[in-house]
Amino acid sequence: PKYCKHWWFSPWLICLVLRHVDVEQTLQESIKRIRSLNSLSSDDNTTAFYGINQFSHFFPEDFKAIYLKSRPYSVPRYTEVLNRKETPLPAKFDWRDKNVVTQVRNQQTCGGCWAFSVVGGIESAYAIKMKILEELSVQQVIDCSYNNYGCHGGSTVSALSWLNQTQVKLVKDSEYAFKAQTGLCHYFQSSDIGVSITDYTAYDFSGQEDKMMKKLVNCGPLAVTVDAVSWQDYLGGIIQYHCSSGKANHAVLITGFDRTGSIPYWIVRNSWGRTWGINGYAHIKIGSNVCGKPSAIFILNFV
Question: Catalytic: 279?
Answer without folding.
Answer: no
